[in-house]
Amino acid sequence: xxxxxxxxxxxxxxxxxxxxxxxxxxxxxxxxxxxxxxxxxxxxxxxxxxxxxxxxxxxxxxxxxxxxxxxxxxxxxxxxxxxxxxxxxxxxxxxxxxxxxxxxxxxxxxxxxxxxxxxxxxxxxxxxxxxxxxxxxxxxxxxxxxxxxxxxxxxxxxxxxxxxxxxxxxxxxxxxxxxxxxxxxxxxxxxxxxxxxxxxxxxxxxxxxxxxxxxxxxxxxxxxxxxxxxxxxxxxxxxxxxxxxxxxxxxxxxxxxxxxxxxxxxxxxxxxxxxxxxxxxxxxxxxxxxxxxxxxxxxxxxxxxxxxxxxxxxxxxxxxxxxxxxxxxxxxxxxxxxxxxxxxxxxxxxxxxxxxxxxxxxxxxxxxxxxxxxxxxxxxxxxxxxxxxxxxxxxxxxxxxxxxxxxxxxxxxxxxxxxxxxxxxxxxxxxxxxxxxxxxxxxxxxxxxxxxxxxxxxxxxxxxxxxxxxxxxxxxxxxxxxxxxxxxxxxxxxxxxxxxxxxxxxxxxxxxxxxxxxxxxxxxxxxxxxxxxxxxxxxxxxxxxxxxxxxxxxxxxxxxxxxxxxxxxxxxxxxxxxxxxx
Length: 582
Description:
By secondary structure, the chain is of the alpha/beta class. The protein is 42% helix and 15% strand. The protein has 19 helices and 19 strands. The two termini are 39 Å apart.
């Protein structure tokens, strides 16, 4: 029997140009790290945080070699590392490192060890694929193909996939996963109004958010309306000068341009004042959004949001672009029933729109389960066909070699779409996605690539300052339920990225705030599973502690006077989160 303690003599973890891992030892039976050493005696916890954050950002690689171990490894919850063991003896236990599955951050499971809490589920998965008998054989007597099935069963167990959902998990399809769009509250009213607008060739204004989810949502709806023979107005607000969501000036400008229908995508659920202005100016309003909603909704003809309190569809995990696609499906069906599609105006193939759905879904970091998983799987197929000039140009400037995979969307394509909204022109991403001219698309993609490089430089400098402030605030004892960092001169467009990096490094909710000369601070927060900072931000607004605030469970935006913003986030918000933070 192999000694359960394995000393790895040659171990490296490279982050950029630095080698930050010197040695480690593990208990291979339990899959736990016993000791780990970095340069200058860097401690286990600090080192694992660094590895965890870097791998989730796809910015580092781990290669480990030793007597019994050879691995591409990734951390799980900053405490455990999974290894793909090369078997050197019949009884040597092995584990599966589920490093990349649908592009999500790694979550690894340890299987094949005595007392594994996942063993029952793994056995059930093996039984489901008809291979439970393999468990009784010595490992050396199992063929290569059978080993793959064993590994697959254990991966499924580690992903907590129910045995009755294995088929849909391995082969996700839109037909099987997507319910009738009309199951959502207000979808019927929304689809009917958009259908009427298409039938009457009305001027439709699409108001989107400046992130990837908002850009893909706006582009998808705009492309569909073009297929209907109408040219919509697409409006993306400036992040710095207008902020998130509809505003009075934008609504007035759209009304003056002749819009009769305003469709808000990935925003609008809490924009009572702006939507009230739209109604006063004679615009019908449809909202397609997924952000958390208050009990009282703004004035609108229809608000399609599975996270509103009276929606029972169970689709609250969808990104806005997924909801927009479902709206388009409902509108397309109504147009077909009304005889709108004819020989001279062919009905579009909606599966081709799934490329944008996949891009927005992955970039918005929603759970890749159920319908989202089907959206991404089929959207990747659409992207690989390289049919849309915008998608082709984006993949080319990102130097994407080979067929796109899910992680490419989150770490190569998405950041470039986002770059326009962060530090450049907010509408560049939408313009690229709807562009039909390959030459013009290449120009826009090149500009987004340039802006992304500029964004990376700004982010790196800001992150260094934020990490130093966070380390000083937490102190040696590493205390504090929430991290709050702030400084003058930080670009408001990158504070969300900085907050995400802080959350990954320190393992707790984090806010980064750009302090503005006018006395206000604009910040963004990112959270950890089980801690709903969007709800906390909305509660702070309701209690008059913040001027603006909201979002969803894992991300939130806040605005308030400089003198009170840090106080609110450090002292008033944490008690609301404390029952959730362990």
